[in-house]
User: Which sequence fits this backbone?
């Protein structure tokens, strides 16, 4: 589904990612783990076209999409739920959802159908439709950020620390929601620091350290490897 080959990128003269190789197969949940500043968000931003790659390639369904524009990448089926949610606080829930569809025009009726599909996952958003998004709780804002990304009908969703700042019970709910998205056929690449929560849902993991992948393996392998858990994951 998504193949990242030898990808390097960064900010100005600061090189952050070095020669990253990652594969996401159809229907998988793959998790990217790593300490603060390791380059996790930088990787998601490079896939989304927000940041330019210096070298390497991003391949989506056999198409080379390296350094394409962000709106093109959303349009062809890669959604991004960014770090810190980045919802539009002054706008209503409905307006945020409509903006999630800016890249692919649809009729009003189709827009309503897409929203209903989001509400089947997050019923609370329907109750809050005309409320200003900035007044939602943290958990509701995260749900809105996910729903906004779903409005573009992605085949792949990139999640950047969806559990950040949420109470454990809400984290469990969000993880269950992500699992449900997999069941709906969306392939998922998720960045998380809440390792215990994400290991419950992920099929495979990559560990990134100062811009390089240092470990990759299945959840089962990671769970059974005491050295990796202690040395790399601080568990
Ligand atoms: N806009 C920017 N300009 C310059 N350097 C940046 C910028 N954004 C991030 N960096 C640097 O790039 C490196 C990787 O940052 P990144 O945000 O990708 O880390 P991360 O793994 O997502 O960390 P966290 O877990 O804290 O979110 C860091 O050293 C950071 O200081
Ligand atoms: Mg980050």
Assistant:
């Amino acid at each position: 589904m998504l193949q990242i080959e030898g990808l390097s990128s960064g900010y100005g003269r600061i090189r952050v990612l070095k020669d990253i190789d990652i594969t996401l197969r159809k229907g998988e949940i793959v998790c990217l783990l790593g300490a603060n500043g390791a380059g996790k968000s930088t990787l998601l931003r490079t896939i989304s076209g927000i940041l330019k790659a210096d070298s390497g390639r991003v391949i989506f369904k056999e198409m080379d999409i390296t350094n394409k524009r962000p709106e093109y990448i959303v349009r062809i089926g890669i959604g991004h739920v960014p770090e810190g949610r980045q919802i539009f606080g002054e706008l209503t829930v409905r307006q945020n959802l409509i903006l999630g569809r800016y890249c692919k025009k649809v009729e009003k009726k189709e827009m309503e159908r897409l929203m209903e599909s989001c509400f089947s996952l997050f019923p609370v958003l329907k109750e809050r439709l005309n409320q200003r998004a900035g007044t939602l709780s943290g958990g509701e804002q995260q749900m809105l950020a996910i729903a906004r990304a779903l409005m573009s009908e992605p085949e792949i969703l990139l999640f950047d620390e969806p559990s950040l700042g949420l109470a454990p019970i809400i984290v469990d709910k969000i993880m269950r929601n992500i699992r449900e998205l997999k069941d709906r056929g969306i392939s998922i690449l998720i960045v998380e620091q809440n390792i215990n929560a994400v290991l419950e849902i992920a099929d495979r993991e990559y560990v990134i350290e100062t811009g390089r992948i240092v470990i990759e393996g299945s959840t089962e392998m990671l769970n059974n490897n005491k050295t990796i858990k202690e040395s790399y994951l601080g568990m």
Notes: The first strand starts at residue 2 and ends at 11. DSSP finds ten helices and ten strands in the chain. The mean pLDDT is 94. The longest helix spans residues 168-183.
